[in-house]
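Support reply, case 0932

Customer input (verbatim):
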Amino acid sequence: STDAPDILGHAPSMQEVFRAIGRLAQSNATVLITGESGTGKELVAQALHRHSLRADKPFVAINTAAIPKDLLESELFGHEKGAFTGANTTRHGRFEQAEGGTLFLDEIGDMPAELQTRLLRVLSDGNYYRVGGHQPIKANVRIIAATHQNLNERVKQGLFREDLFHRLNVIRLRLPPLRERREDIPLLAKYFLQKSAKELGGEQKILSEAALTFLSAQDIPGNVRQLENLCHWLTVMTPTQQVEIADLPAEWREASPAASAGGDWHTLLAQQAVQMLQRGEPNILDTLTKEFERTLITQALQHTGGRRIEASTLLGMGRNTLTRKIQELGLDGDGE
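Our regenerated output:
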């Protein structure tokens, strides 16, 4: 596995991510990392850089959603002196800063349309211009992009250029949410409690069996980042070394665990729906339907040892439908 300390996981889905990082070590290919917020997309991008032939050159990250639309172009490509009011000096953009190394474009799904066109041009002919510049500059960077959004959907909605999507989607790595790798929650919690104790100079807190079981049953919508924040909070706020369920913040205790003991799946589904409705989440039907399909297809494929024809017969769907669903739900590995 990788030497990235914050990427931990025994779950098969994470082992697959580690294997992909290893396989991509000698590659210069563009990688698209997909996954919900807080799943660790930037950590994986850093690991890909560290294990690449460009490791001794810069790793430059830019969150395309966090920068105002009118500043993003000069952030990415730089500007010439006098290009616009306030441009008193020539400025090197992120492409130049990452020269020879890796440029990580986070939240690529939010990139404005005109910037998508500029980026596509760089990816297709390897040259770009500073804002206000007339001299082409040769780009020598490896692009790693990430999004928490469904880019296929955004392409269909006309919000993301299809040609740019295909340029970025050379190799796709899907990071699983924590609810798909519950077995890793104890490992991650222990690591983050250790890390927080070291940072804050206090004693390391230990989660009781009951607290660990409780946490492992939660959905944790903010994923690894939310779990890390919780461990930081516990390190500061828990008066004793052992953390019990009662020591958890109220909002965690009030969330009904997804896998509460007993209760058939109808009850659990009802509980899940209530939680999502209370949180005011959009597209609940679509989200839950996809989870339902993902679970059924995953189990059927495990049962048949990956034989799709047999799995499709057992599920009562056509083979082509199953193949399409596998692609739509991101169940087809890293897209190589």
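We compared this against your earlier run and they match. Two observations from our side: The first helix runs from residue 12 to 23. Residues 12-176 form a domain with the Rossmann fold fold (CATH 3.40.50.300). Please reopen the case if you see a mismatch on your end.
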